[in-house]
Amino acid sequence: MDSYGAEDLFQAQAHLYKLIFNFISTMSLKSAIDLGIPDTIHSHGQPMTLPMLVLALKIDPAKSGFLYRLMRFLVHSGLFVKTKVGKRGKEEEEEEAYDLSPCSRLLVQGNAPNLTCFAQCVFHPALSDPWKLLADWFYREEVNPFHCTFGMGFWEYGSENPEYGKLYNKAMVRDSEMMNLVIRDCRSVFEGMQSMVDVGGGNGAVARIISEEFPDMKFTVLDLPHVTGDLEDTENLKFVAGDMFHHIPPADSILLKLVLHAYSDEDSVRILKKCREAISGKGKEGKVIIIDIVINEKEEKHELTDPKLYFDLLMMVAVTGREREEREWKKLFLEAGFSHYKITPFFGLRSLLEVYP
Ligand SMILES: C[S@@+](CC[C@H](N)C(=O)[O-])C[C@H]1O[C@@H](n2cnc3c(N)ncnc32)[C@H](O)[C@@H]1O
């Protein structure tokens, strides 16, 4: 301690308090969603002053000072932006108003893409309670804190609690809809393929997006029975209930979006070997396409590494997975018998990895 001056320690105190109070960011965001603030500003069609917001949210005007403070924090954290509008009746005078930022635009219901459901799925006790046992878990036998909390694995929990299972699947669909933004830019990745199996493809959102660009391609979505249950096949999209550890239907290409990050290295190699078998009919031209995080702490911006590391810990707490650096991905590919790969950082947090036999 002696080597640190007062200034260092006060800076450390500010940093520590920021870490201690990080949950306030999460809970304030949750309140904004629960109050419906993004939807309210969106349906108003233009920035809203504080009194307008109080009125629209049906909040007692006596509480407007409290709403002001919540909004001040949410503007500071980038969820909303503050702007100026002309005063009603006195257009020459300006007053402050709140508008959506790109971040809160992603929380407007009915807008695509929309990540409200993703947030609700993470705020749910299924994904928030296990953190309370993180420290305990280091001294316990269970495979992860989720098991310590619920006595079962995450996928089993989704099957036993259909309401949560549905919320989770919907959250994944919403996350996948972000693919619409870039699908045209990655046409070359899918060109030349006549068939594709989306392994762990959930409700088939990604397969649908790709099939709109490639209507002649045949798609199969393989997922657990409680996920594929009542989903209907279409002309070029078929749902198959099954277990990727046992069998993956043959195809020219296999897609794994956000699947391998939920598994240990040993299980990921088992899945990748099954994928290699499935594309063997296409010879050297078959490929496995992976959409997942690649951590690159040295080269990427700090703001991008933060959420990647959050996902890494989430995978540790909820399932038995991990987020990987390029060298860790490469090790998996070589162990599973693949010869080369290409990484394209297409999707913000996620990259597209093409893996060849
Ligand atoms: C993180 S989600 C990804 C869903 C989808 N790929 C997406 O990105 O929207 C992982 C998916 O793997 C499925 N899954 C888990 N274990 C599986 C297994 N043994 N066989 C097939 N699918 C499985 C889950 O039901 C879930 O839909």
From TrEMBL:
The keyword Mitochondrion does not apply. The active site is at H261 (proton acceptor). It is an enzyme of class 2 (transferase). Pfam families: Dimerisation (PF08100), Methyltransf_2 (PF00891). Residues 18-109 form the O-methyltransferase dimerisation domain. Keywords: Methyltransferase, S-adenosyl-L-methionine, Transferase. It catalyses: a 7-hydroxyisoflavone + S-adenosyl-L-methionine = a 7-methoxyisoflavone + S-adenosyl-L-homocysteine + H(+). GO terms for biological process: isoflavonoid biosynthetic process; methylation. CDD domains: AdoMet_MTases. Residues 131-339 form the O-methyltransferase C-terminal domain. GO terms for molecular function: isoflavone 7-O-methyltransferase activity; protein dimerization activity. The keyword S-adenosyl-L-methionine applies. InterPro entries: COMT-like, COMT_C, COMT_dimerisation, SAM-dependent_MTases_sf, WH-like_DNA-bd_sf, WH_DNA-bd_sf. Its EC number is 2.1.1.150. PANTHER family: O-METHYLTRANSFERASE. This is isoflavone 7-O-methyltransferase.
